[in-house]
Amino acid sequence: MPRTQLEREVRFLKLYAAVSSFCLLLLCLSAFQQSPAEKQRFTEIDVERINVIEKDGSLRMVLSNRERSPGPVYRGRPFAYQGGSRPGMIFYNDEGTENGGLIFSGRRNPDGTYEATHSLTFDQYEQDQIIALQYIDNNGERRQGLQILDRGERPIHEMVERWDALQAMPAGPAKDSAGAAFQRDFPVAQRVYVGRGRNRTAALTLGDPQGRTRLRLAVDSLGVARLEFLDATGRVTYSLPDSARAAPW
Predict the structure, then answer these.
(1) Closest to 91 measured CA to CA, from 124, 130, 122
(2) Can you give the pTM of this predicted structure?
(3) Kindly report the CA angle at 190 between 185 and 194, in degrees rounded to 5?
(4) What kind and span of H or E run contains 3?
(5) CA 80 – CA 46 distance, rounded (Å)
(6) Cα separation of 212 and 185, whole Å?
(7) Would you list the DSSP string of 93-132?
(8) Share of residues in the chain with pLDDT > 70 (%)
(9) Residue 130 and residue 150: Cα distance in Å, rounded?
């Protein structure tokens, strides 16, 4: 082969190798150095679970089906019961602790009856729900409304541990004493409820710090309106109209 032809072929191979290497480098860079501003757009997507995370990987929200739903989490660590029971959205605070969510269910049973639940809740810091918007239906016996609660300051993981230990105790005076101590250490009181009860009464009830109803405004299933003031024992002390009698709400 003439020397000039051999030199041309060698130069061509060198150029080909350089171009191929450059193209490969561009391909790798485009695969691993995606622009932060770049985003994907989908017309439709099927997914069993989506985790919304911070840059450090900590959870801020989980959207999932029933099977892949998470259990409760306190400061990034699971506790209490396992996941797999509450399809919907679960929210987490800056410290990785669950602080509310939206869950839902609804099904017809083999005997023909049905049950349905929808619940949007917001949790107290390191505790359980204190605001709840709920619909609960047991085959037509339904309740729906807004509930506002007071809770104690002790963390929820301690509450669950104490509760599990209490349930494991045999019946008797020791368990009764431990139960009373549990209620003192982890108080919960309904302060406000606005909604429709199972007896088809629309009501607004206000409670004291111990959860006892002290004021009740209601319209019953027959359209009769009443306003009642109650003492700490639940006795009606004043009502409007005067002829109204205490109702079993």
Answers:
(1) 122
(2) 0.79
(3) 165
(4) helix 3-32
(5) 30
(6) 18
(7) -TTS-EEEEEEEEEEE-TTS-EEEEEEEEEEPTTS-EEEE
(8) 82
(9) 6
